[in-house]
Design goal:
Strands 1-2-3-6-4-5 form a 6-stranded mixed beta sheet, with helices on one face. The chain has helices spanning about 5-15, 70-85, 105-115, 180-200, 225-240, 345-360, 360-365, 390-405, 435-440, and strands at about 30, 45-50, 55-60, 90-100, 120-125, 135-145, 150, 155-160, 165-175, 205-215, 220, 225, 260-265, 270-280, 285-290, 315-320, 320-330, 335, 335-340, 380-385, 410, 420-430. Helices cover about 25% and strands about 30% of the residues. A hairpin with a 2-residue loop joins strand 2 and strand 3 (about 55-60). It is α+β, with helices and mostly antiparallel strands and about 450 residues long. The protein starts with a helix and ends with a helix. The chain is globular and about 55 Å long. The chain has one domain. The chain has 9 helices and 22 strands.
Length: about 450
């Protein structure tokens, strides 16, 4: 696509403002769980209604335990069946495949090419065994809407434009297999992600959410360990980037960072992905959220990392009458200390308590955003990373009791601290009662 045509399309996609939401309109839930699925164990789906745009969050785990080919076909048949029930045609835009064995990736890629044809979504292959014992599990996002327009920029970048907002998704990005050391691997992967964003007509500055999947995340390296080396590289790469500054409120911190997950992976060195946003809508505002009972990760003491992890506990975007909240990977940490070593049940409860407090209406109000916030019923999906697969039953029982049967993936992965047994992330969509214009002018 020539640069001038792309530029014109981008201006058309991001410049049209949406009518401002009026006070007094009734607020209702945005996330619904369609009937007829068996919950988080095998297949689950949530539907998010956002004006003209409908999003589906899907998680699928095969019930069978046959050959990889058979399990993968079961996953794709389940995906097709769920999408077929929707009233409008849905397009899968981003998917993450959790694999037990890295050697199965090539076969999975071939099956996806046959399944999707030219409409292949941005795909991340994460070498994290599903806790259930399956050969693979799938998390996917699909979209539909009369005004939705999708642009593809090769296998690693895709843009979705709707109602004056342009979402850019990048994934499947890795450093060269020959490159050694987490510091060099992270710098190269971030440079490649920056190039993918630029190919899609976007800049790294617009990134809202990132994922880092790192092999041997707690393994010693360079007189420290690999996660600390990742943090050092991330700090160096981010140093002069004013993330999403046009969208932030004047009251927000000078140096907010994207929400993020940094989690272990059992092979393939490093994989990175991100979500970015372009918009000129006047009612779009972005907020960086921190948990009042946790030290911000970017302010951790040097004993945890020579360069602190540069991410926010959550990023929240107000767009019209709703809020999208990306929850970073969250663990059993209070202030900056790990809690309940060796106890999966207490760690799971503490992690969920941290998420509940982070996205609460009270915390939004404390950040200067009254009338906003989210509850667990506003979550579209979660991911649960478990260090020990034998903890699945206990952890899932707690998650189901507290979150409900929302779409969920449970995968085996080392957490960034050796004593941590579980990490949870998610995304919530919730109504917002306060127009963005009032926040900018202080009318609250």
């Amino acid at each position: 696509m020539c640069a001038s045509l792309l530029s014109a399309r981008r201006r058309q996609a991001v410049s049209k403002p949406k009518p401002k939401r009026k006070r007094g309109l009734p607020l209702s839930r945005l996330v619904a769980l369609p009937a007829g699925l068996d919950g988080a164990e095998h297949s689950a789906c949530s539907r998010v209604a956002l004006g003209d745009l409908t999003r589906l969050a899907l998680t699928l785990v095969p019930a069978g335990r046959g050959a990889f080919h058979e399990q993968a076909l079961e996953i794709m048949a389940g995906l097709k069946a769920i999408l077929a029930k929707e009233p409008a045609p849905m397009t899968v835009t981003v998917q993450t495949v959790f694999l037990r064995h890295a050697a199965d990736q090539a076969e999975c890629e071939a099956l996806f090419r046959a399944h999707y044809g030219l409409e292949l979504p941005v795909t991340n292959f994460v070498i994290q065994p599903p806790c259930s014992g399956a050969a693979l599990a799938l998390e996917a996002w699909a979209v539909a809407g009369e005004s939705v327009r999708i642009e593809r920029f090769g296998p690693q970048a895709l843009a979705v434009s709707c109602e004056g907002a342009r979402w850019v998704y990048c994934g499947g990005i890795k450093p060269p297999a020959t490159l050694q050391g987490a510091y060099a691997q992270t710098l190269e992967a971030l440079a490649r992600m920056n190039a993918a964003l630029r190919l899609a007509g976007c800049s790294f500055q617009q990134t809202l959410r990132t994922w880092f999947y790192l092999e041997g995340i707690t393994r010693p390296e360079a007189a420290t360990w690999r996660y600390q080396e990742l943090n050092r590289a991330r700090s160096d790469f981010y140093r002069d980037i004013p993330f999403c500054s046009p969208l932030f409120r004047p009251q927000c911190p000078q140096s907010p960072y994207p929400a993020s997950t940094g989690i272990g992976m059992s092979a393939a060195s490093l994989l990175v992905s991100c979500v970015a946003l372009e918009t000129r809508r006047e009612d779009a505002l972005l907020f960086s959220l921190e948990n009042p009972q946790q030290t911000p990760a970017y302010a951790y003491h040097p004993k945890y990392s020579s360069q602190s992890p540069k991410f926010s506990r959550a990023m929240a975007l107000m767009l019209g009458g709703y809020m999208t909240t990306w929850i970073s990977g969250t663990a059993s940490i209070v202030s900056s200390e790990s809690c309940h070593p060796g106890d999966i049940e207490k760690q799971t409860e503490q992690t969920i308590d941290n998420i509940q407090r982070l996205i609460s209406h009270e915390n939004f109000a404390a950040h200067g955003v009254p009338g906003a916030g989210a509850r667990f019923e506003d979550l579209a999906k979660i991911r649960v990373y478990l260090k020990r697969p034998e903890d699945l039953a206990k952890c899932r029982a707690i998650c189901t009791r507290r979150f409900g049967t929302i779409p969920a993936i449970y995968a085996v992965a080392d957490v960034c601290r050796p004593e941590l047994l579980v990490e949870i992330e998610g995304v919530a969509f919730s109504p917002c009662s306060l127009p963005a214009a009032d926040l900018e002018t202080g009318k609250h």
